[in-house]
C-alpha cells in the first residue's frame, strides 16, 4: 500500500512535466490544439508591420502590445478555420485569393489590429470570417440568432482546439476578437471598434 502511494506521488510530477514540456516550447508563441504559431512568425509579422506605412504608426504607438495582438489575430484565424471546417463550409485557397484581390486595392483604408497582418493573412482572416458569417446567417430568424450561431461555432472550435499562449504574449480572450461580420466584410475596411 505504501509502495503504491509512493509510486503515485512520483508519477504525478513526471506526468505534469511531460504535459507542460509539450506546451512550453520557447520557440512557440501559441498553440491552437496541436497547431503552432511560432515566435519566428510573430517576429516576422512584427517587423513587416513596423516597416509597412499602413501599420508603422500603430506599431510605434503601441510597440509592447503589437506582438500579443498579432498572436491573438493568428489564434483567431486558426479558430475560424476550424469552425468553418466543422460547420461544413471550409474556405478554399481560391476563395482566399479572391478576397485578397478585393482587399489589395483598398488595403490602405484598413484600420485597427487587422492592419498589423500581412496581406495574405488579412485575406485569410476575412475569407474565413465572411464564410462563417454567411453560414451563420442562413436560416437565422434574426441578426441576434446569427450572431449566437457564429459565436457558438467559434467557441466550439476553441473547445475542440484548446488555446495555450506563451505567457510573454499575454492571454487569448475570445471575447476581445472580431465577432460576426456582415456579408461584405471581406471588401470593406474594418473599423477600429470591430477589432
TrEMBL record:
Coiled coil: none annotated. Keywords: Signal. Gene3D superfamilies: Porin chaperone SurA, peptide-binding domain. It comes from the Bacteria. InterPro entries: Trigger_fact/SurA_dom_sf. Residues 1-24 form the signal peptide. This is SurA-like protein. Residues 149-168, 174-195 are annotated as: Disordered.
